[in-house]
Amino acid sequence: MVCEHRYRKIACSFDNPRLYQCLTCGIIFNGGLPRNLDLKGLYKTYYKNELGGRFNRGVEYIVRAFRFFRAFKIFTIYPGAKRILDIGSGRGFMLYYLKKYYRYTRTIGIQISKNAFDFSRNKLGLEIYDRDLLDLSLEENSFDIITLWHVLEHLVDPERYIERIHSLLAAKGKLVIEVPNFSSWTRAMTGKYWLGLDPDYHVNFFTPEILSSLIKKHGFTIKTTHTFSLEYSVFISVQSLVSMVTRTNHIFFRSLQARGVTRHLLLHALLFILLAPFCLFINLLLYYSGRGEVLLIIAEKA
Predict the structure, then answer these.
(1) Does residue 74 carry a pLDDT above 70?
(2) Which of 63, 121, 123, 271 has a CA positioned 20 to 30 A from the CA of residue 53?
């Protein structure tokens, strides 16, 4: 049975949003977003240009390098895998690298944002679908590995996706999920200034205990859990702290999506430089503590 969150309590309340916790399944969810949310409409321009990017050109090259690293991580998680489904596949570079360098025979992505979908299909030649996973007719037991990189927090009914993913994975297939960690040290410290909150897009929030319980409920065995990401952890920590100190709305992060330099941006950049080494040290210390910035769980179909 999939939980419908009928019984809930207030988890925390900011100016926006108010977060509730389901008393049945434990999931924390954003009370400011409707349960019948039109995801395709919301994410139509999430990837902002015809190249499928979200950030300035220089930043996009850094993102692309991280996708190369992500493909290598997938290889280390399951060296024998040859069939992958990536839900919320961005521009598709991870799939592209797996196909090109690791000889994957089947690389399928799901991407509902039009610009990223067009780039993945037309520029990279990938098999990409612009429909919801729950609306697709995919063969059961047909994938070695299924990934959701910072996607589950965007989905209205995450439990239904976990249930569907279990049916699509082959025996001993791997599930990889990465989400912002609601138990992170900066979430507790910075409150509404936590970058991982992102109330315009994030529907659900997870702690290690909540996400592990959800995954195990649907027939998975947890293999690895940690709370560090080279790509996200330091940036989320620093931006959250800077926003709290300056009482601003993530100016440096938003500048990466726009053009131009302002006096305020230079101050924020300086604070980033000063705080980054400290935040890197803290996040590495918290690697397996459950208090790091980003939660990664690798599970196996039982």
Answers:
(1) yes
(2) 271
Task: Residue 122: name the closest of 100, 83, 91 by CA.
Answer: 91
Ordered strands of the 204-205 beta sheet = 8-13, 18-22, 28-30, 204-205
Least confident of 59-63, 88-92, 192-196: 59-63
Q: Which residue blocks in the chain are alpha helix, DSSP H?
A: 39-42, 57-77, 93-101, 114-118, 158-168, 185-190, 208-217, 233-246, 251-255, 263-285
Integer Cα distance of 291 and 276 in angstroms: 18
Angle at 77 between CA 76 and CA 83, to 5 degrees: 100
35: left (phi over 0), alpha (psi -120 to 50) or beta: alpha
Residue in the structure block whose two tokens are 């190369």 = 68
Which DSSP string corresponds to 231-288? TTHHHHHHHHHHHHHHT-S-HHHHHTTS----HHHHHHHHHHHHHHHHHHHHHHHTTT
Could you tell me if 6 and 24 are in contact, meaning their C-beta atoms sit under 8 angstroms apart? yes
Strands 18-22 and 8-13: what pairing? Answer: antiparallel
Place of tokens 């690798």: 298
pLDDT tens-digit series, residues 90-120: 999 999 999 999 999 999 999 999 999 999 9
